[in-house]
Amino acid sequence: TDLDTFVAGLPKAELHLHIEGSLEPEQMFALAQRNGIAIPFGTVEELRAAYSFSRLQDFLDIYYQGADVLRAEDDFRDLALAYFDRAAADNVRHAEIFFDPQTHTDRGVPFDVVMRGLLAGMAEAEGRHGLTSKLILCFLRHLDEDAAFATLKMAEPWVDRLAAVGLDSSEVGHPPEKFARVFERAGAMGLKRVAHAGEEGPPDYVRQALDLLHIDRLDHGNRALEDAALVARLAREKMTLTVCPLSNLKLCVVDHLDTHPMRAMLDAGLRATVNSDDPAYFGGYVNDNFRALAATGRLSRADFVTLAKNSFLGSFLDDATIARHV
Ligand code: ES4
Ligand code: ZN
């Protein structure tokens, strides 16, 4: 439709994308072959058929298993480049991508191999498409505080190449307060701070992310809507929410996109954005997410312009660069 074409053409920034979650089944098989690794699925179709989830943990189990094919610097480079090629086709002009170093260092892949590979892909994408990008190092919240501190230590030589730290993986039972001291240290290193909160976890986890982690941006935030005072605070503080509609649907965070909280978020004056999270697993890149929202008929062209502008306003680009984009 007309609206589909309109939303697809909007220049946008992507602020919530796990690079390991952009590993398409075809690329997973190719990397497995290149690295001489056996994977427990016979075909791309069999693997795709396994992508049926009732909750976050169902997905995480298969996502960490998939990442095992990533071994060498060029694997990370090729992964990133494949994502940037797809993002550029969706008119993404800037991307701030998450990576999960612990998923790799715990398998014996050195931190520096991950960094060099991702940075090579980022540089190549900027040359190819003019697409700029930044890196966000995520701590796995199901692991302990000591492990997060050890990861932050590995990141020290690379601190100038990192924009922020984040917090992801299994939310319930791993509240933000567990990482307050790690985030304090990251802030002292000059890094921005973001955290997944309120995806499956309660509104109090969102409050903790604000008060104890001092976040600059909130990833997901859906369940903040259960607390009116918290919503008012997020609006007042102009907190950016990186919302992921198709992810929410696939992980049963919402029952249907027609009842997705994006409408309520915009009505509450929240600075919401549209993002793809783990596109290879959730059935779509950023324009698929925009079009899925458009199909609900509950958002106007003006709403989509706001969402696309919010993605630059909520980015960690400098003010002059943001002004050039909006
Ligand atoms: C994630 Cl959707 C989601 N939630 C939490 N952690 C994650 N890691 C990758 N995708
Ligand atoms: Zn995520």
From TrEMBL:
Catalysed reaction equations from the record: adenine + H2O + H(+) = hypoxanthine + NH4(+)
InterPro entries the record matches: A_deaminase_dom, ADE, Ado/ade_deaminase, Metal_Hydrolase
Enzyme class: hydrolase
Molecular function GO labels: hydrolase activity
Keyword terms: Hydrolase, Metal-binding, Nucleotide metabolism, Zinc
Requisite cofactors: Zn(2+)
Residues covered by the Adenosine deaminase domain: 11-325
Keyword Hydrolase: yes
Enzyme active site: 199 (proton donor)
Similarity annotation: Belongs to the metallo-dependent hydrolases superfamily. Adenosine and AMP deaminases family. Adenine deaminase type 2 subfamily.
Protein name: Adenine deaminase
